[in-house]
Structures are given as structure tokens and as C-alpha cells.
């Protein structure tokens, strides 16, 4: 992090002054039927997620801040505010958001690990952001600097709110809102929040019924406005979020932009995932928010239909979505190529955001099944183990000829002209602990199995939970229940779909070899029978201090077959163990193109703490030499250099 930005700030503080705190924002109220336990209230101490989150804090976030400095993303705010001379720097109309997203990730990190030096640095960046904001609250630096110059060739130049299909002005605002809320909640400071509110108030004055009827070209302002509403209680933010969604696909007041922007028909009439996958994922998350906040059946039915389409026809075994490089978009039903798969890292993250909201709305574990598959495979494959290089797309095959990564690379890269994925990982990784637990009245949900602890307030009192496990490598989980007082409540333990012979809901993927064992649960050492409701083992009883629950999930290697309508996977099988999808790399298998799997292929797995930061390795044996190979988790591929890779192997 360069010091010259601190010097610039010191030189202008006298003129800028310090913001005066306004009235305290309202606290978030209940909106979904189920409430998640915030990541800041969950302490994880495992060997899988904790190192990754720490790498994000100590490597990814600092490196990304440095890239923003080096590439002029911070300079643009100073140029826009007249504190630096020059023209627009950077290649994209949304470069401002990279700064916002890293601040969001840094704020999340500071929520769990205080860092005064980082706190001061973020404050200095917020002062720079404030310089770039126009007097009425407008904030998109490239427009302020020069309306006659477009930073990207695919979007025409123009003044405010012109070319909203591609200008990303509202997208920039959305990421700013999300980051500002995160920063306020982490620090209690209003310096960034006041900038965001000023911009949101401008949007409210410009957009809406009888005003500017345009909608965002790239969605996320919808969820950003909702987060601002939940923090401030200003309903006009919620109303504008809904207006943007309601107006989509309505040709009576504006020209439609078509399927690429999910603007081909009203959102409540949509039933298929189409167009740009990240835009879509953020929109579906916003629609789910509206369904919950308004108790709106039309919105709920729409997201249910679209979700069904994605999960049964358009998702990869890795949890990736958006199969096409062309338009970074969803393909047709069952169009899931492997070599040319796009599967943008941002799309996998958006898929997690959406599916968690679907769980909060419906309370069904199938949404966590999808979330978990994306989380352990399609998201973390996007970043190298050292946290410093990244994939933009995440293909399921590499032949060393098709240059799949952004910029034409065959390896992860430290930065891109369009660096939405690295900065999205910055903000996403610290939030992972927030997906583990949830609660509703006297129900405590355990969604993900991660060694961790938390305290949850149920109707009958406070309950501490301690979770001990080596998941995802081992299927044994121990929960220690510590209620404040002896009381009756319900613990709902997610039974992962993969542990009961269902890779994902629907028939897109199936196991060739059904699991021989079933999940087992004991309470205080005694095996218990349990009912399964919406994918959860339901344990209702009077719980006492130090009651112990043990869950035994069968960690067997499974062969996966895709639906016959997926042409690229015909005659092929994949393998997975627990929530982890595996692949083969040329590094381990020089004859990778000859490898096969048959019904007779046998598997043996073992943990290697020295390989790729510690992974469970699968070795095979069979009736032919082509069935003898070594497989590693998909998410770690390409960490030993560029080489051939495949998730799907020919079936012998």
C-alpha cells in the first residue's frame, strides 16, 4: 500500500473536514422467516476454511489494494474531484467497484480480527472516494472525469444515466452501498455510509415511477439498496429496489434490452435462467429479498421456477453456472460443455448468495446442498492457494490448447483489466462462517459442517454450540450443546444430499454406485432414530449442558453420471467424495487422455498433509492400466503450473 495516498489525504483534511455523525441508523429487523447467524458471531478454528480466510486477509486483500493503486483505480477519484490532473485510468466503467469490494472484504475481516493499520488505510481510501463524489451525490468517476470518453469499447460515451444497459453507474452504486453498510457495521463509523446515503438519495430523486424509468444494466443495486434500507429504515430505498425489478421487462415505458440483461419479460413471468450469469444471480438474490420483505407470492413463485431450471438443467457438477464465454451467459438447457465452460468465479459467488436467501425463505436443505457444492468447488477454484492469482472462468477440462482464462492465459493471473473476480473473492471469503448456522424461534439449524463455535438466541434462551470435525475430508462431526438453561428446543442437522445418494436436486446428476452406508446420529453416545424434514434430521428434546451429538456421514468415493441430455458428458463419469468434486491432472497422470473409469474401478483415499496445503488424494485400481490414476480435488488444480486437466473421464 503506497504512502502517497496518505499524504494526499493529509493535505486536504483541513479543507474537507470531518463528517458529523447523523442520527443512529435503525437496527435490522426480521424479514426472512429464518435468520442466519452472522459470520462475526461464528468463530471457526478448522484446518480447511480458517487458513483460506486468513490467506484472504493477509494476502488477497493487501495485494488487491496494491493493484488498485498501481492501476489508477484510486487516482480516478482524485481526478474526478479535481485533486489530481489527468484522464480516466483503467479499462472498465466499473473499476470504482474494485475499491468498494476490497473495502467490504477488509471490513468483514476487521469484524473478526481488529487491525488498526488496516482501519486507518481504509479510512484514507474513504476520504479519496469522498473526493470523487459530486455535490449532489453522483459517483461514477469515469463519467465525472470525461463524459466524451468511454473506458470500454463496448459501451458508448455519454452523460449521466445514458446507456444504462452498459454504463454500470447503478452497478457502481450497488457495490458502494454493500461496502458502506459492511464498513459501518464493522467499525461504527459513518464516513463511508454517509457517502452511500448521499448517492442513494440521488437515485431516489432521479429514478422511479413518473421519473427516469430505466433499470440497471447490471444488477446489484437492488440488494445494495435493500441493505441500506435494513440499516437506515428509509423505505424509499426498498421501494426503489422493487421499482427496478418491477420495471424490468416492461416495454410500455422503455425499450427493452433483451435476455442478456434479463430484460426480455417481467421478472415475475420469467421461468428460465438466461443471459449474463452474474447479472442473473444478483437479480435472483434481489428478487428473493423482495419475495421475503413483501411476502410476495409472485416473486416467490418466480425465483422457485428459475431455481428449478438452474439446478435441473444448467448447473455444473462443480456448482458453477454460466456455461458460455459468449456473453458470460447461461446456455440452453443441458448445454454444459467442459473444455469451453465459462463458470465465472463471480457467478459461483452469486449462486451462493442466491441459494442462501432461498434457504432463509423456504428452510429447505436442498438450497444448502447447492450452496455447498458451489462453495467447495466452483468458488474456491477461482483463487490459488497462496491467495495471489485468480481464475476468471473455471472450466472442467484443460487441453493446453484452448486458452480459457481472461487475457488468454492457461494459468491463474494476479489481476485482470476486468478484475471483478479477485475483488469479489476479497469480500466473499470472510463471510463464509455466516453460512454455517441459522435459527427460527426454537429451531437451531446446522447447515455446514465446519469446526466452529457460536452462540444463538432462541425463544427459550441462549444456546452455545461447539462443532468439532475434519470435514470435508472426514464425515464424523461432534456437536457440544451448551444451553444457558436446561430447556426444550429443536436442533435441525442438515443431511447432505450427497450422503443420501443425491448429488443435486433433480436428475441432472446421479451416482452410478449408491452409497452402502447411511448417515448415523447419536446423542450422548446412543444411536437415535430421527425424522427428516426438508432435508434436516430433526432432534427435539430437552437439552442440557454438554449434551453431545455425533453425526457420521458416509465418506465414500462415488462415480457420477450426467443426464444423457448433456452431450459433452455422454459416455463419461466423474468422481467425488463428500462435497468435493475431483479431477485428474497431467502432473500426476502423464497419460491423462487415455484414462478411463469402469464399474470395476476401485478407489482408495488418503490424506496427504504435504500436498497442495493438505488434501485427500484418491488413487484408483482396476482391470486395465487405463483405470489406474491419481485424482485431486478440483479446487486445487493448476496450483503446480499449467497442465492438462479433466473432471469427466471416459467410461470403459
UniProtKB/TrEMBL annotation:
GO molecular function term, any single one: hydrolase activity
Record's keyword terms, sorted: Hydrolase
Domain Non-reducing end beta-L-arabinofuranosidase-like GH127 C-terminal, residue spans: 557-649
Residue ranges constituting the Non-reducing end beta-L-arabinofuranosidase-like GH127 catalytic domain according to the UniProt record: 41-433
Domain Non-reducing end beta-L-arabinofuranosidase-like GH127 middle: 444-555
SUPFAM superfamilies: Six-hairpin glycosidases
Biological process (GO), any one: carbohydrate metabolic process
Gene3D superfamilies associated with the record: 1.50.10.20
Name this polypeptide is given: Glycoside hydrolase family 127 protein
Amino acid at each position: 500500500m503506497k504512502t502517497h495516498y496518505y499524504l494526499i489525504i493529509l493535505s486536504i483534511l483541513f479543507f474537507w473536514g470531518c463528517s458529523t455523525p447523523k442520527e443512529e441508523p435503525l437496527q435490522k429487523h426480521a424479514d426472512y422467516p429464518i435468520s442466519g447467524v452472522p459470520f462475526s458471531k461464528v468463530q471457526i478454528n478448522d484446518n480447511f476454511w480458517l487458513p483460506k480466510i486468513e490467506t484472504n486477509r493477509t494476502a488477497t486483500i493487501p495485494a488487491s489494494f496494491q493493484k488498485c493503486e498501481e492501476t489508477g483505480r484510486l487516482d480516478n477519484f482524485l481526478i474526478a474531484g479535481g485533486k489530481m490532473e489527468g484522464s480516466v485510468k483503467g479499462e472498465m466503467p466499473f473499476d470504482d467497484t474494485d475499491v468498494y469490494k476490497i473495502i467490504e472484504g477488509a471490513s468483514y475481516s476487521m469484524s473478526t480480527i481488529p487491525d488498526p493499520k488496516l482501519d486507518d488505510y481504509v479510512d484514507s481510501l474513504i476520504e479519496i472516494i469522498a473526493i470523487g463524489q459530486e455535490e449532489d451525490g453522483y459517483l461514477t468517476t469515469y463519467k465525472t472525469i470525461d463524459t466524451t470518453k468511454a473506458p470500454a469499447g463496448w459501451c458508448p460515451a455519454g452523460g449521466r444515466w445514458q446507456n444504462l444497459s452498459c454504463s454500470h453507474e447503478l452497478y457502481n452504486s450497488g457495490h458502494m452501498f454493500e461496502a458502506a453498510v459492511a464498513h459501518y457495521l464493522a467499525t461504527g463509523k459513518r464516513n463511508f455510509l454517509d457517502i452511500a446515503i448521499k448517492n442513494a438519495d440521488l437515485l431516489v430523486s432521479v429514478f422511479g415511477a413518473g421519473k427516469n424509468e430505466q433499470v440497471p444494466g447490471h444488477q446489484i443495486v437492488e440488494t445494495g439498496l435493500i441493505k441500506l434500507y435494513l440499516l437506515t429504515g428509509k423505505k424509499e430505498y426498498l421501494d426503489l429496489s422493487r421499482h427496478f425489478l418491477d420495471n424490468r421487462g416492461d416495454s410500455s415505458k422503455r425499450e427493452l434490452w433483451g435476455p442478456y440483461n434479463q430484460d426480455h419479460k417481467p421478472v415475475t413471468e420469467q421461468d428460465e435462467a438466461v443471459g449474463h450469469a452474474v447479472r442473473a444471480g444478483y437479480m435472483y438474490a434481489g428478487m428473493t429479498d423482495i419475495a421475503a420483505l413483501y411476502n410476495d407470492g409472485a416473486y416467490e413463485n418466480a425465483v422457485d421456477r428459475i431455481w428449478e431450471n438452474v439446478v435441473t438443467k444448467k448447473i455444473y457438477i462443480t456448482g458453477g453456472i454460466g456455461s458460455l464465454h459468449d456473453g458470460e451467459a447461461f446456455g440452453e438447457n443441458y448445454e454444459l460443455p467442459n473444455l469451453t465452460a465459462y463458470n465465472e468465479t463471480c457467478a459461483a459467488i452469486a449462486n451462493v448468495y442466491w441459494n442462501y436467501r432461498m434457504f432463509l425463505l423456504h428452510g429447505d436443505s436442498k438450497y444448502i446442498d447447492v450452496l455447498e457444492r458451489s462453495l467447495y468447488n466452483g468458488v474456491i477454484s477461482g483463487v490459488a492457494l497462496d491467495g495471489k492469482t485468480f481464475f476468471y472462468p473455471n472450466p472442467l477440462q484443460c487441453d493446453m490448447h484452448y486458452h480459457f482464462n481472461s487475457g488468454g492465459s492457461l494459468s491463474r493471473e494476479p489481476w485482470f483489466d476486468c478484475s471483478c473476480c479477485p475483488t469479489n473473492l476479497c469480500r466473499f471469503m470472510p463471510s463464509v462462517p455466516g453460512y454455517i448456522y441459522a435459527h427460527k424461534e426454537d429451531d437451531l439449524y446446522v447447515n455446514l459442517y465446519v469446526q466452529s463455535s457460536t452462540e444463538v438466541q432462541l425463544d427459550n434462551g441462549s444456546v452455545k454450540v461447539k462443532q468439532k470435525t475434519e470435514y470435508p475430508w472426514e464425515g464424523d462431526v461432534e456437536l457440544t450443546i451448551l444451553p444457558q438453561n436446561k430447556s426444550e428446543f429443536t436442533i435441525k442437522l442438515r443431511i447432505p444430499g450427497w450422503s443420501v445418494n443425491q448429488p443435486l436436486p433433480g436428475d441432472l446428476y446421479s451416482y452410478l454406485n449408491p452409497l452402502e452406508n447411511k448417515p448415523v446420529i447419536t446423542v450422548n453416545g446412543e444411536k437415535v432414530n430421527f425424522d427428516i424434514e426438508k432435508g434436516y434430521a430433526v432432534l427435539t428434546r430437552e437439552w442440557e449442558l454438554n449434551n453431545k451429538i455425533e453425526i457420521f456421514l458416509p465418506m465414500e468415493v462415488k462415480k457420477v453420471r450426467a443426464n444423457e441430455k448433456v452431450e459433452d458428458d455422454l459416455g463419461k463419469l466423474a468422481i467425488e467424495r463428500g462435497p468435493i468434486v475431483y479431477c485428474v491432472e497431467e502432473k500426476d497422470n502423464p497419460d491423462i487422455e487415455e484414462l478411463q473409469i469402469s464399474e470395476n474401478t476401485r478407489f482408495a483415499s488418503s490424506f496427504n498433509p504435504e500436498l497442495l496445503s493438505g488434501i485427500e488424494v484418491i488413487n484408483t485400481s482396476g482391470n486395465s492400466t487405463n483405470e489406474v490414476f491419481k485424482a485431486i480435488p478440483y479446487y486445487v488444480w493448476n496450483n503446480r503450473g499449467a497442465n492438462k486437466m479433466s473432471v469427466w473421464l471416459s467410461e470403459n
